[in-house]
């Protein structure tokens, strides 16, 4: 079934070898092509079931109204390279690696909203603490509820994003997340209402800041939806699949997935805080020194879920954001040190511009890949500086109160209504900067390494 349609799509796309990436989306099938000139767009557009095409560079979206899931799965089955080869590689990965990739991919699109709204909340807080806005001021109340929206409906954002990762309907994913913060459920929790479903007691748990519950729910929902999509007749599939998916997934969310996810969240948060309280004075400097190398190979992304969970569950992150501050500032300082010493005008300009970008906004990629890694020794200097800053930060028990990239422009992240580590953060930046620059001047660097890359 659907073999003819799938074979025709592959033929028009010049075969599976011409497909670099393929993904199921709400509108149909999204592909990234290797050679656009080989694709027969007119032939593709005329195929039965394809309503229209959207082409953006090498990215092509096939808008399919009916049976897009089945056609997508049949295309994957028929491919003898590209995605199929990637799928075989994925099977060789450990369960842990797969889980980290899925979690990271689900949370990454949500981070900008959290970071932007988080800074907004801190700005409103600063205006309140400085006496500009009183808590009963209508402008304070208005701005506060706007920025609080980012965290209050967090399960909805995560559900929408996770559904794309797990190949499920994204709006069903959002539905499952938003369901857990419905006003009626919130009132039940506040009132302590005894809630039962077919004789089973439902735990009264607040899910407004629980990421793991949303991820676990949507992951399981993807299998439930796939089951009903396979067996429900086409004539009622458009409403039958969502209805049955809701009827099965929703009760299981409150009975099983939600409570399990909430327990995992508490284990992660409590375990991280325990490590911080007991060995933080060792762990933070060492992790700060290693962090630039973790960033260079992308492993640092696996730490983001821990940081987000800490902020959501505890209200602060005393570990990952602190480490990131030391690492980011050390990369910036190493780049600026190169700019001060370099004789090559192009290298000097690049080092200053990318170092300043990292210092102000925390974006370390350009300075790391463009300057510090090619020259090697600036990376060693950054490790020394980050470690020195980590020692001070761990002794001061610093805490970040929102999830955002640490840098000069995001200094308000170290301020809450009851606590402030703003001064400590500034001192940490100064320590990291001075130690890194001194270490860089002592270690030196070979400009020919940059010329080779050039």
Furnish the topology, listing elements before pairings.
Elements: H1 3-12, E1 19-25, E2 28-33, H2 41-45, E3 50-56, E4 59-64, H3 68-78, H4 83-92, H5 95-107, H6 111-129, H7 138-152, H8 154-165, H9 170-179, H10 183-191, E5 196-197, E6 200-201, H11 211-231, H12 237-296, H13 304-314, H14 320-341, H15 345-361, H16 365-375, H17 377-395, H18 422-443, H19 447-453
Antiparallel strand pairs: 1-2, 2-4, 3-4, 5-6
Molecular structure report:
The chain is an alpha+beta fold. The protein has helices spanning 3-12, 41-45, 68-78, 83-92, 95-107, 111-129, 138-152, 154-165, 170-179, 183-191, 211-231, 237-296, 304-314, 320-341, 345-361, 365-375, 377-395, 422-443, 447-453; strands spanning 19-25, 28-33, 50-56, 59-64, 196-197, 200-201. Strands 1-2-4-3 form a four-stranded antiparallel sheet. The longest helix has 60 residues, at 237-296. The radius of gyration is 25 Å and the shape is globular. The protein starts with a helix and ends with a helix.
Compute the gyration radius: what is it? 25 Å
Strand order of the largest sheet: 1-2-4-3
Order of helices and strands: HEEHEEHHHHHHHHEEHHHHHHHHH
N- to C-terminal separation?
Answer: 54 Å
Structural class: alpha+beta
Mean pLDDT: 84
Q: Helix proportion of residues, in percent?
A: 55-70%
Largest sheet: 4 strands, antiparallel
Instruction: Count the beta strands.
Output: 6
Total of helices: 19
Global shape: globular
Name the poorly predicted regions: 80-91
What proportion of the residues form beta strands (DSSP E)? Answer: 5-15%
